[in-house]
Specification:
Strand order of the largest sheet: 2-3-7
Helix content: 25-40%
Strand content: 15-25%
Number of strands: 12
Bound molecules: flavin-adenine dinucleotide
Distance between the termini: 19 Å
Order of helices and strands: EEHEEHHHEHEHEEEHEEHE
Structural class: alpha/beta
Length: 263
């Protein structure tokens, strides 16, 4: 829901950056904003930092020469990581993969510097999640043909340091949330965001052709309402069911083609 700015009669809080949701993405965004000097406010509908992150095992897929990879004697670099992600993706987004690969070792250092604990150790056996505190593990198909011929393999699963199979996501989130509090990120819980306030004419583009796009049965749209796109990010998605993958893809393509935007 969009509320015109003129209809708001009082403001309870103000901030330079407002983040909706206090899972790991939200807490990291709020920390980054605060560390860049902004007053950051997180609004979370649950009673604490939560989301899927609280259920996650606590493996971070990172590489390119993280401190743990180096300490455990594995050579990895951004190119090998990008080559592997490109090889396994069905339609690789070069720009996104290269940004992720080039920043990956620094992302590891960023998390660790903000309190997420990682052991300098390697778990050599096959497991979905290693049972102990060992950090590094093979989590993908890096050593499997044909990928081993397309990208130099390296183990890249980094488990948060704790004994056990469950709770790593919650542990990482606890540390990041504690850091966020320390640096002055404000969080308000039990508060669901269900409207945006719009100053000026419009904050989202106008979408045309939606009825035509949804005319075929079992077709849905997810329109992100972005006023502009940067690089190859999507402005929306078309979802479709079909008797075969080809039919579903054709229906989704037709639905996407029917939608147009006016900025
Ligand atoms: C069992 C399980 C194990 C997993 N293990 C791993 C793993 O080992 N490694 C890995 O990389 N990934 C793993 N994942 C996936 C990973 O957990 C998610 O990709 C990640 O946590 C998503 O983080 P997020 O911050 O985007 O979303 P979430 O953690 O879901 O956070 C979103 C937050 O936004 C809040 N919110 C939503 N709407 C509103 C609103 N309108 N107003 C206010 N608040 C709102 C929600 O309450 C929630 O707290 C696992 C997932 C599951 C379920």
């Amino acid at each position: 829901m969009i509320i015109p700015c003129g209809e708001v009669d009082r403001w309870l809080k103000s901030a330079d950056v407002i983040v909706v949701g206090c899972g790991i993405a939200g807490v990291c965004a709020a920390i980054a904003a605060r560390e860049a000097g902004a007053a950051a406010l997180v609004l979370e509908r649950s009673s604490g930092c939560s989301g899927s992150t609280a259920a996650a095992a606590g493996h971070f897929y990172l590489g390119g020469g993280t401190a743990v990879q180096i300490a455990c004697g594995f050579h990895d670099d951004a190119q090998a990581l990008a080559d592997y992600l490109t090889a396994v993706a069905s339609s690789p987004d070069e720009e996104k993969i290269s940004a992720f690969a080039e920043g990956s070792a620094a992302h590891f250092a960023w998390l660790e510097a903000r309190g997420v604990p990682f052991d300098r150790s390697y778990y050599p056996l096959k497991a979905v999640i290693q049972p102990g505190r060992e950090c590094l593990i093979w989590t993908g198909n890096e050593r499997v043909w044909p990928f081993r011929d397309q990208a130099r393999p390296a183990p890249r699963g980094h488990k948060v340091a704790f004994d056990g199979l469950e709770g790593g996501g919650a542990l990482a989130l606890d540390h990041l949330a504690a850091h966020a509090r320390t640096i002055g990120v404000e969080a308000v819980f039990d508060t669901k965001v269900d409207a945006l306030v719009c100053e000026g004419d419009r904050i989202a583009p106008k979408f045309d052709g939606i009825a035509e796009a949804l005319a075929a049965p079992d077709t849905q749209l997810r329109l992100f309402g972005k006023p502009e796109i940067v690089g190859k990010r999507r402005m929306g998605l078309a979802l479709a069911l079909g008797a075969s993958i080809e039919e579903a893809r054709a229906k989704a393509r037709n639905a996407a083609a029917a939608v147009s935007t006016t900025p």
